[in-house]
Predict the structure.
Amino acid sequence: MNVFRLAGDVSHLVAIIILLLKIWRSRSCAGISGKSQLLFALVFTTRYLDLFTVYISAYNTIMKVVFLALSYATVYLIYMRFRNTYDSENDSFRVEFLLVPVIGLSFLEHYAFTPMEVLWTFSIFLEAVAIMPQLFMITKTGEAESITTHYLFFLGLYRALYIANWVWRYHTEGFFDQIAVVSGVVQTIFYCDFFYLYVTKVVQGRSKMSLP
Amino acid sequence: RLHSKPKDEL
């Protein structure tokens, strides 16, 4: 464990909690893409299948359980508890355009052709594109509440910190996980445009980030 | 080929 990965995991946890609290306290999921949250729940489900078969550390196990629980709680709030505030009309991204290439690629590129490895690879590739429905929804509505942008900021920061973690691990222990690194770089690139808007617009203290 | 590795990362 290094400080970059720990900061990344904390940033990821903060992002998930920010979103969950926003929905719970405002009792509304307006402006939130339920599809992205479904995809994130699928990412955690397919990645943490080893939760009960492999014990790495208390931290690892606890964080996996927390991420699974919070992501399912978020999906529950969106599609069940506050479903009448779910903006399905603007949450219109065709997720099959993401799932088909990700499934295909995880069958092409993986470390071993075993169910666990292919599902893990699927979860890595899926995580890179899971935010697309949310970013698409923001471009469609033309704006995002500032709390939603904070959520996106910490979510993008988490993977950017993981890249620093991979650089650090490469130089200190020769660790290099090509699938995770390539996918993580692609994922972070998707956020760059948003990061620019976030820094130039939201940090100036405007309540909503309206896209140009 | 790429070798698998213990998945200690979240």
Chain B has a mean pLDDT of 69. The radius of gyration of chain B is 8 Å. DSSP finds no helices and no strands in chain B. Chain B touches chain A through ten residues (CB under 8 Å).
